[in-house]
Amino acid sequence: SINVAVVFSGSSYQTEVRGRLSGENFVDLPVVVSPVTVLVNDTNPRDLLTHLCDTMATEKLHGVVFEDDVGSGAGAQILDFLSTQTALPIVGISGGSAIVIPYKAEGSSFLQMGASLEQQVLCMFKMMEEYDWGEFAVITSLLPGYDTFVDIVETYTDTSYFLWNVQDVLSLEMSVGASEAKTKRLLQQLDSQVLLAYCSYDEAQFLFRQAAEVGLVGPGYIWIIPSLAVGNPNSPPPDSFPVGVIGVITDQWRKSLRQRVREGVAIVAKGAESFKKQHGFVPEGHGDCTKPAKHSSDNNTLFRHMLNVTWERKDLSFNNQGFLSNPSMVIIALDRERIWDKVGTYARGILQVRYPVWPRYGSFLDKVSDDRHLTVATLEEHPFVMVENVDPGTGTCVRNTVPCRRQSNHTEDSSHPEAYTKLCCKGFCIDILKKLSRNIKFSYDLYLVTNGKHGKLVRGTWNGMIGEVLYRRADMAIGSLTINEERSEIIDFSVPFVETGISVMVARSNGTVSPSAFLEPYSPAVWVMMFVMCLTVVAVTVFVFEYFSPVGYNRSLVSAKSPGGPRFTIGKSVWLLWGIVFNNSVPVENPKGTTSKIMVLVWAFFAVIFLASYTANLAAFMIQEQYIDTVSGLSDKKFQKPHEHYPPFRFGTVPNGSTERNIRSNYIDMHTHMVKYNQKGVEEALESLKTGKLDAFIYDAAVLNYMAGKDEGCKLVTIGSGKVFATTGYGIALPKGSRWKRPIDLALLQFLGDGDTERLETVWLSGICQNEKNEVMSSKLDIDNMAGVFYMLLVAMGLSLLVFAWEHLLYWKLRHSLHKSQKLDFLLSISRGIYSCFNGVEDPGRSSGLAKPDLTSNYAQANMLKMLRTAKDLVSTANVETSLDNATKTIEH
């Protein structure tokens, strides 16, 4: 068995505890527990030490469980000293001493079931990050540990990624007799709405009284205090505590005293069980306060076994400083009924909070009067305001977003506590709002308008963001809200922070490649000149030069009939020039005359230039050209007289906005036509453009330029590279006569001058399609690109079949009906094949070595000619032209 002393400081526990704590209360623990109750007066720490030493001497204690509420600071320090000297394990079960003793002495065995000062400060910062409270001031008393509190704050702000701004750090004397005048004077110097305070419970009452007198309390100010200043949350808070003050405490406050005592005793019992499993026995208890502890070098003590305990599925492990490794903290706020209300939790690095945590609203979201807190209305529209759901695991907003709410329908059903849905907002306008909040120093609640409109006058009532501001439901409206004359008559606008107007978006249509695309590098006139005139004329010219050449025909076509005569014809000239044009290595016959050869060389140079120019321009005509509807502006005929086009031009906008109002006021017929094509939202309109349901979409230029830049595939474009009509701007809407107009105007102008607005535009408004025209985009050629070449090949095959049929008809039928005549000698200049066909002889120019006579020929004359030609070739081959005898011998052999 083990002996555990349960120490209660103060007489308030005497009637509750005496007679109730016995071994029967702990029968479910793994070892037998003998509890010893000790009641002491916290105002006399010596009394506590005496009682414990007497108890140790009589009971041989294995551990001490201490009810360390926030008023037991002195007793906690005595117990820490006692644990260091005697190595007696002591467990603080309420966590109140965790802040009083942020750092323990070396060798201390004091365990605290609460969050350390550093852990509580971390929770404060996590909550401030959640609500974008980046600017704050620190106020501390001179209570021991205040310098540690300031050091923790400075270290965290210096190392955090979040943009923190510690505006001031005040350390004030708050004890009895402190100068109230000096305190007020120092508090008046503060210009922050978020205030972190470190002080005791009594000092907090003094601080809040002085702050109230200088106007630092109320809904416009957010006070955050640690558990030390909260006191006992189960007791009514002092009257000086302002409504809305936020406290960070451990989750022990919801547990009864009996539950806390059981957990403390369980830690000692589980540690004893672990020690016994390892060593086979339970260590002796401590019985002498005057005997210094012998610290084991191998950590073989009961205290070491108490550091890692799990009981009833609860992680009760401690770090090396004696604090819970993973404490569960509770965020509480003082509501309007002056009751501490749990508004959030923080455990294992995860923050879960209710929105809003401070009581700015009464029943059914009735607004509380506040000069420094603004209710801001907005409307979702990318990229100016983008809405996301909260993190499903934590219920909080991720980095770079701010909490916003979408109001539910207002009903009188008080059983429905949540009259809004918490969301997260980000975007260009949200960043502008955050910068304004920091520069002008105001806090805000952000909500989305319920009807999702910018603002339109319907039956005498304004809706949307304009209506929220006009009817004082919001102090400000920010978003893609266009400034126009009608709206400016009923509300005030800030200076524009984004230039916009009306623009028109259309979709690119994939064009088709013409079958004649491969011919389009040159005009039809060039092709005709090239192949009909130039090729024919040059071919005839080359033949004419060959005809007059002494080494050619020598002005006589008859010479072509003789063996070894000229064989160059007009047909062969055309074939030669055609092969030169396209660099085809085909069998050709060259002219013999010098003039003809020079003419062929000139043609070859011409062909190089022609082919190079064609190749250089071919790629541009083989790609699919994208077609874009050309619209000059709102006064274009396609808009003003859409029915004159077939099919009628389809265009629309999103109703209830400044774009529709402008068109309705200036172009009545155009507005009448577009009503049936109006879209519910921008996203729907973009989809209609892509699917062909809409030909053009008219809307705010800033939104359309963003959508065109971000469009996947860059299929959407604004006409005229973002041309804007009816230029205006986006402004922040404020009620008439609002005192915030001038500060907001000056801040927006400062943002513009410092380049902040331009940087935000780069982040939020630019897109990948902005420089599309400057980028080289390549893709594979498909069948559409090459269709014309295949068509040409099919036509050529068809023509070849016709020529084939005509050739056979001529050879087998028509040539027999013609009589041989000298009049057909002109065919020798065109084609020897045609001449031979009509004269019944083989082409005299077509020889192949030692050819044999064709005995099957229809004409004996033809056979005789072939025999003579063969004999001549034999003689020529043997180089025996000058000797008849040698020629005869050659024939004989």
Automatic annotation (TrEMBL):
Instruction: Provide the site residues for: Crucial to convey clamshell closure to channel opening.
Output: V631
Provide the Gene Ontology terms for cellular component.
NMDA selective glutamate receptor complex; organelle; postsynaptic membrane
Key word Cytoplasm present: no
Q: Reaction catalysed by this chain?
A: Ca(2+)(in) = Ca(2+)(out); K(+)(in) = K(+)(out); Na(+)(in) = Na(+)(out)
Residue stretches spanning the membrane:
525-548, 598-623, 789-812
The cysteines covalently paired via disulfide bonds are C714-C769
Annotated membrane topology is: Multi-pass membrane protein
Q: Which residues bind L-glutamate?
A: T482, R487, S658, T659, D700
Q: Where is this site: Interaction with the cone snail toxin Con-ikot-ikot?
A: R664
Q: Which UniProt keywords apply?
A: Calcium, Cell membrane, Disulfide bond, Glycoprotein, Ion channel, Ion transport, Ligand-gated ion channel, Magnesium, Membrane, Phosphoprotein, Postsynaptic cell membrane, Receptor, Signal, Synapse, Transmembrane, Transmembrane helix, Transport
* Principal location class: membrane
Q: Name one GO molecular function term.
A: NMDA glutamate receptor activity
User: Residues in domain Ionotropic glutamate receptor L-glutamate and glycine-binding?
Assistant: 417-471
What InterPro entries does its record include?
ANF_lig-bd_rcpt (IPR001828), Glu/Gly-bd (IPR019594), Iono_Glu_rcpt_met (IPR001508), Ionotropic_Glu_rcpt (IPR015683), Iontro_rcpt_C (IPR001320), NMDAR2_C (IPR018884), Peripla_BP_I (IPR028082)
The subcellular location is:
Postsynaptic cell membrane
Record keyword Ribonucleoprotein present: no
Q: Which SUPFAM superfamilies match?
A: Periplasmic binding protein-like I, Periplasmic binding protein-like II
SMART domains xrefs:
Lig_chan-Glu_bd, PBPe
Name any one Pfam family assigned in the record.
ANF_receptor
Gene Ontology biological process terms from the UniProt entry: monoatomic cation transmembrane transport
All copies of the Ionotropic glutamate receptor C-terminal domain together span 399-767
Q: Which family does it belong to?
A: Belongs to the glutamate-gated ion channel (TC 1.A.10.1) family. NR2C/GRIN2C subfamily.
Function, as annotated: Receptor for glutamate that functions as a ligand-gated ion channel in the central nervous system and plays an important role in excitatory synaptic transmission. L-glutamate acts as an excitatory neurotransmitter at many synapses in the central nervous system.
What is the name of this protein? Glutamate receptor
